[in-house]
Amino acid sequence: MSHEVAVEDPRSPSEIGFSSLAHARDYARSVSDVTDRVVERLRSARIEEANELLAQVFDAIHVLVYTIDSSTRLLEDAVAERCPPARADAERWVDRLIEAHEDQDWIRLADVLEYDVRSSIVGWSDAIAAMPEVPTR
User: Fold this and answer.
1) What own/partner pairs with CB < 8 Å and gap ≥ 24 does 115-120 have?
2) How far is Cα 77 from Cα 90, in angstroms, rounded to an integer?
3) pLDDT higher than threshold 60 for residue 1
4) How confident is the model at residue 18 (pLDDT cuts 50, 70, 90)?
5) Sign of the torsion formed by the C-alpha atoms of 59, 62, 65 and 68
6) What's the rounded Cα separation, in Å, for the pair 80 and 64?
7) What residues contact 86, with CB distance under 8 A and at least 6 apart?
8) Would you give the distance in Å from CA 123 to the centre of its chain?
9) pTM for the complete prediction?
10) How many angstroms separate the Cα of 46 from the Cα of each of 42, 43, 50, 60, 100?
11) Which of 12, 13, 65, 115 is the most buried (most CB within 10 A)?
């Protein structure tokens, strides 16, 4: 006796990809806001508070990069080329984030978050918003 449940989605892979990108666009805005709060706490020397939020930011970035990356794979090549390069962007700054945190260099950590991470996240959201195929909410 099999307990598998088959769920069929009537949407095409492209429709699923665009819908997922719309969720990523909206989620990116929330992640950007939390990143701003981490930066503010780091610059105010409220390190414990910043660290609690920083864990959320790291998790959120992971989800965001995965969602954008997997959604892009569902799209036709010509459309996928317009998707933001989230994985490549994250690979550029993730080591610097970890290094600054390990060194307890809170100013450098705040700088990387503010100038690299946040600008990437906002750029991802803007790039997705500029795609006419992605549904608006």
Assistant:
1) 116/92, 117/35, 117/57, 117/61, 117/93, 118/32, 118/35, 118/36, 118/39, 120/86, 120/89, 120/90, 120/93
2) 22
3) no
4) confident
5) negative
6) 16
7) 64, 65, 68, 69, 120, 124
8) 10
9) 0.84
10) 6, 8, 6, 21, 16
11) 65
pLDDT for the residue numbered 75: 84
CA–CA dist 48, 121 (Å, integer):
24
pLDDT in tens, 69-126: 999 888 888 788 888 889 999 999 999 999 999 999 999 999 999 999 999 999 999 9
CA nearest neighbour of 117 among 35, 56, 55: 35
Neighbours of 33 (CB within 10 A): 11
Assign residue 9 a region: left if phi > 0, alpha if psi is -120 to 50, beta otherwise? beta
- The two three-digit tokens of residue 98, written as one number: 């970890």
The tokens for 87 are 């994985």
CB burial of residue 40 (10 Å; 0-12, 13-18, 19+): middle
